[in-house]
Amino acid sequence: MNETFKIIVYSMDLVFVEIIKRILDKSNKKHKIIVYSLFSEAKTITDNDAINLMIIDDPIIGASSFELISFLRLKQKIVCPFIYFGVEEYDGERNAILSGANYFFYKPYNPDEVGKVIEKSLFPSSTNLTNQT
User: Fold this and answer.
1) Which residues are paired to 7 by β-bridges?
2) What is the Cα–Cα distance from 25 to 119, expressed in whole angstroms?
3) pTM for the structure as a whole
4) pLDDT tens digits for 99-112?
5) Is residue 2 left, alpha or beta, with left meaning phi > 0 and alpha meaning psi from -120 to 50?
6) N or C: which end of the chain has fewer CB within 10 A?
7) CB neighbour burial string for 118-131, b if at least 16 within 10 angstroms, e if fewer
8) How far is Cα 26 from Cα 15, in angstroms, rounded to an integer?
């Protein structure tokens, strides 16, 4: 499979972005990373963009990260998996999942665990059982 994966990383933290890039580079999968930090940039993302994965870091500029996820899911109709990174305060995991995130990581996080979830998100068929009739 020679597919290039399109991954959007939403973060205003350059260190976080670099760590995510290194995790993705370890996967040895061809990927294109687009980095955004402003809520207003979400208006340019559409369901026609063929996005394979969204990685959302808290906080972002212009709105809450939960609002961003809701906007992308409901208004822009983005259906790819979302991985959310946040802190243990403010009931973050619950809010992220209710907003539409598929996975949640508390900071600090284990890069190896993040890599496993990214792999699972990009290749769900390798981890799911299929029905045979």
Assistant:
1) 33, 53
2) 12
3) 0.88
4) 999 999 999 999 99
5) alpha
6) C
7) bbebbeeeeeeeee
8) 17
